[in-house]
Design goal:
There is one protein chain. The protein is about 65% helix and about 5% strand. The strands form 2 sheets. Strands 3-4-5 form a 3-stranded antiparallel sheet. A two-stranded antiparallel sheet has the order 1-2. Strand 4 and strand 5 form a beta hairpin. With about 525 residues, the protein is mainly α. It contains 16 helices and 5 strands. Among the domains are: about 120 residues, no CATH class; about 120 residues, Up-down Bundle (Four Helix Bundle (Hemerythrin (Met), subunit A)). Helix 4 packs antiparallel against helix 5, helix 5 runs antiparallel to helix 6 and helix 10 runs antiparallel to helix 11. It is elongated, with a radius of gyration of 45 Å.
């Protein structure tokens, strides 16, 4: 046998080899299903693929007898395990000594724990409610210990028998390979490495059948001892169960009864996020509605659940009213640039929240964020108004100066409308419009606008230019009789009218106090 000592114990198993092994042992076929045979580490005990059909090739009769007994136990336990597999029920132990049932595994996310709580229904199809609770209320030492026991128990009735059968088959192949190996040193190295793999297997599989696995490991101890004795080498005292992991020892609780499940739901509602609390209570109430009057325990529970639902609905209404009133007041004060008035609402919200029992932290956080935004708007508006008031005299002076050219341009609107509508335009009318536009341009050039008036100045200047273009194009259209030129005049007239109106609107806003946008 080539290679380093013990190297062939860890060769991967091919599908063909697994099928050949299955002919020699009923459980060996699962050896090729590597995805089903690992718990925490996808590596499992992989030993030699050679598996002689007869166990008499083992080195001693004692080993043959022990291994045969273990294989009988494997076959019997595997049949029972397949019928008892079900979903794992975990327990969340709380700091106050109570527990919550989690249907399936739970998840710890930052400072929260997310779990699925069964709330009535059948054992095969329970009504599930998603629940989020603070991680700080959980007794994690007991919860983690129970989870380890629950996972071990679930593993024992699902994948455990198949994985153990695979291990036993691998041990058989390893013992067979060792038996046909002639070199004593190689046999001892192979047995030692195989024993380490067997010991590691039980640690990686929740301590499943630890005592039986210890016996499997002991077979390699026997091989090592016998090989040393046969070769005349000094014997070494080996502890058969040294470093052997043990299964989790925390006892499991039975599934909760319907009263227990509903009581836990009521308890969970006090810990749940406010957004989940009411739906959880309503789920408890819905399950209670299916319970007949003969269930004497349901009356008191129904009364407590109804009171809790009424209290939550009342709290929701109180906080909704608080948010609506505060935001309405904040909007009004922000429009008035009343910075102090908006700031006082922050204190009011905190006081009202305390009066209501601090029952909706998320709603209050959202409300405070909205108030902060309105406070920022009020501050910006206050600054804009202070700036506007400081420059109001300058703005009013500019408004008086710019009003004259604006009025001049507006007096020509009727003529611009006639050009835009392709109506009759006399030579006298066009000349009068040209003169007015020239007057407005001279007046505009004599006015220096403040920063706030630059937009108005630009609009009026562009309006005067478009008016001149409209007059010029209309005169050319009349002379040539060409419609494209008339359309050019109409377009310029429409643009001039629009710019004059925009300038008029901007001028009105110039001397008006800034408003909240």
């Amino acid at each position: 046998m080539g290679g380093k000592p013990g190297e062939h114990f860890l060769r991967p198993v091919t599908e063909t080899q697994a099928k050949e092994s299955a002919k020699a042992h009923p459980h060996a076929a699962c050896f090729g299903k590597t995805e089903q045979c690992a718990k925490k580490n996808p590596q499992h005990v992989r030993m030699s693929t050679s598996f002689p059909p007869l166990i008499h090739m083992f080195s001693t009769a004692a080993v043959r007898s022990a291994f045969a007994s273990l294989m009988i136990v494997v076959c019997a336990s595997h049949a029972d395990a397949q019928s008892s597999a079900n979903v794992t029920l975990y327990r969340i132990f709380l700091q106050d000594g109570t527990t919550l049932v989690s249907y399936g595994d739970y998840a710890r996310v930052a400072d929260r724990v997310v779990l699925s709580v069964p709330m009535g229904g059948s054992s095969s199809a329970p009504n599930i409610q998603l629940l989020t609770i603070p991680a700080s209320v959980v007794d994690w030492e007991r919860t983690d210990a129970y989870a380890e026991s629950a996972r071990a128990a679930h593993y024992a009735v699902t994948r455990g028998p198949d994985d153990y059968a695979l291990l036993a088959s691998a041990v058989a192949r390893a013992l067979s390979d060792i038996a046909v190996t002639r070199d004593s040193a190689t046999k001892i190295a192979m047995a030692g490495e195989a024993r380490q793999n067997v010991t590691r297997w039980v640690a990686e599989h929740y301590g499943y059948r630890a005592s039986d696995v210890a016996q499997l490991a002991g077979m390699f101890d026997d091989v090592i001892a016998e090989t040393r004795a046969a070769s005349g080498a000094a014997n070494v005292d080996l502890a058969l169960v040294a470093n052997m992991a043990v299964p989790p020892s925390m006892p499991l609780m039975g599934p909760p009864t319907l009263p227990e499940s509903l009581e836990q739901g009521l308890r969970a509602a006090t810990l749940a996020e406010p957004s989940e609390r009411l739906s959880l209570l309503r789920a408890v109430a819905a399950t209670l509605s299916t319970v007949g009057p003969e269930a004497t325990w349901s009356g008191s529970l129904r009364a407590r659940v109804s009171a809790a639902i009424a209290g939550e609905e009342r709290t929701d209404r109180d906080y909704a009213t608080l948010s609506r009133d505060v935001l309405r007041t904040a909007d009004r004060r922000a429009r008035d640039a009343d910075v102090r008035g908006v700031a006082r609402l922050l204190s009011r919200v905190l006081q009202d929240d305390q009066r209501l029992g601090n029952r909706r932290p998320q709603a209050i956080a959202s409300l405070l964020a909205s108030l902060d935004a309105r406070l920022d708007s009020a501050r910006r508006l206050r600054l804009a108004r202070d700036q506007w008031e400081g420059r109001l005299d300058l703005l009013r002076g500019y408004s008086r100066l710019i009003s004259e050219p604006l009025a001049t341009l507006r007096r020509g609107r009727s003529s611009l409308e006639r050009i835009r509508q392709f109506e009759a335009t006399s030579r006298v009318m066009l000349q009068r419009l040209t003169d007015r536009t020239a007057d407005a341009s001279r007046q505009l050039s004599a006015v220096t606008p403040p920063v706030e008036g630059e937009t108005i100045q630009g609009l009026l200047t562009s309006a005067a230019q478009l008016t001149s273009r409209a007059v010029s194009a209309r005169q050319r259209a009349v002379a040539s009789g060409e419609m494209p030129t008339a359309w050019e005049a109409a377009s310029a007239a429409a643009g001039a009218i629009m710019l004059i109106e925009r300038a008029s609107d901007e001028l009105q806003r110039l001397t008006k106090a800034p408003e909240l946008k």
